[in-house]
Design a protein that fits this description.
Distance between the termini: 69 Å
Number of helices: 14
Number of strands: 5
Radius of gyration: 21 Å
Largest sheet: 3 strands, mixed
Shape: globular
Strand order of the largest sheet: 4-3-5
Helix content: over 70%
Length: 371
């Protein structure tokens, strides 16, 4: 436990001390974010704050993470460094989407192919298993893993729209993964201890930066931070559950509930509105909550609470039976869809459950009046 705390404190202190210097660097090289009609902030802000997160993580990683005994950890470090560098270039030069995607694909390919981080054996609910670690399925496991890493990386990047939002949600997801790893380490699997140490190191680096990033922010993390954190969360989710029961693969999805939820319905919204999937808009979860009248800080805190709820459910699912997991997931899906319609993530006109309820209510009221 002392190693976990020391790792967290080391990365936190380094990140905290580094952030003001990174802020000056961003201002001096012109890595700034200018307000426009799609953004919430009203003044030019330095970005590149993810570099401070990376520096805290970098120092603590080489001190506390036993990467020499687990090659996947070194792969995550190298891949994270590649995607962080991609984000730095974007924060400075505004890379085109294809170059950003290329950097993400390269980072994912590095951690998957030479370092072997990929989905392994999936034990099915009843009998048999699917082994992605050998045979022809090996070649299916590789693209699926790369797709997951790139998808989650972009999901975390998309929610980076308010002060402290992406950093806070990432911190909650990282803390959840750390707790899940500690719970599962009781099963005798040594690699969960390493995952827990890694999570504490990453969590400390995020918290050290979050002090400067929470509303009103003094610096943004930029793509340097959001891509780096998204990549790490994606890779860690596979690291912790690469060989498990089928229902256990639900856990990382629940841990990353907020960014995945927001991204999924952003895609649905753009398809429904007949717009390109990659086109930006102001229909994300934080935009919807702001439109409902919540303040900037209240919106961020509300999404934090939702993230904590998802994280709590993920921890609970590590100790539930198969059927309990299925029931909980069905209830979560219904609750998530209702919340989607209430806040208007797809749009005010597309509310099938609410509209059906209203029609039934009007019909029931008409029947009562006729009697």
């Amino acid at each position: 436990m002392s190693t976990l705390i020391l790792g967290l404190l080391t990365s936190l202190i380094v990140s905290f001390i580094a952030t003001p210097y990174v802020k000056k660097l961003a201002e001096s090289i012109g890595a700034t974010d200018t307000p426009d009609q799609r953004k919430v902030h009203k003044r030019i802000m330095p970005r590149l704050g993810g570099l401070a997160i990376y520096l805290g993580y970098f120092v603590a990683f080489f001190i506390f993470v036993p990467f020499t005994t687990m090659k996947e950890m070194l792969g995550i470090f190298i891949g994270g460094t590649i995607v962080m560098a991609t984000g730095m270039l974007d924060d400075k030069y505004q890379l085109s989407p294809k170059w950003k995607l290329l950097g993400q694909l390269l980072a994912a390919a590095v951690v998957v192919i030479p370092f072997g981080l990929k989905i392994g054996v999936v034990n099915l609910p009843y009998e048999g298993s699917i082994d992605f670690s050998s045979g022809w399925l090996l070649w299916l496991g590789v693209p699926i893993t790369i797709f997951w890493i790139v998808g989650v990386t972009n999901a975390v990047n998309l929610i980076d729209g308010l002060d402290g939002l992406s950093a806070g949600v990432s911190a909650i997801a990282t803390a959840t993964m750390a707790i899940v790893a500690l719970v599962m380490s009781g099963s005798g699997e040594a690699h969960y201890d390493t995952i827990a140490i890694y999570c504490f190191v990453l969590l400390g680096a995020i918290l050290g930066f979050l002090y400067f990033n929470f509303h009103p922010a003094r610096i943004f993390m930029g793509d340097t931070g959001s891509l780096f954190l998204g990549f790490n969360l994606a890779a860690l989710s596979i690291m912790g559950f690469k060989e498990a029961l089928f229902v256990s693969f639900i856990i990382p999805i629940v841990v990353l509930g907020v960014p995945l939820w927001d991204t999924f319905f952003a895609i649905v919204r753009r398809i429904v509105n007949k717009k390109p999937i990659s086109s930006p808009d102001k229909g994300h979860l934080h935009h919807c909550l702001l439109n409902m009248g919540l303040s900037h800080r209240a919106t961020v805190l509300t999404i934090y609470m939702i993230s904590i709820f998802f994280g709590t459910m993920a921890i609970v699912l590590t100790k539930t039976t198969k059927w309990t997991t299925i029931i909980v997931m069905v209830l979560l899906l219904i609750a998530t869809h209702m919340a989607t319609e209430i806040v208007g993530l797809v749009g005010r006109r597309h509310r099938p459950l609410i509209n059906t309820y209203r029609k039934l209510k009007v019909k029931s009221a008409g029947q009562r009046r006729s009697h």
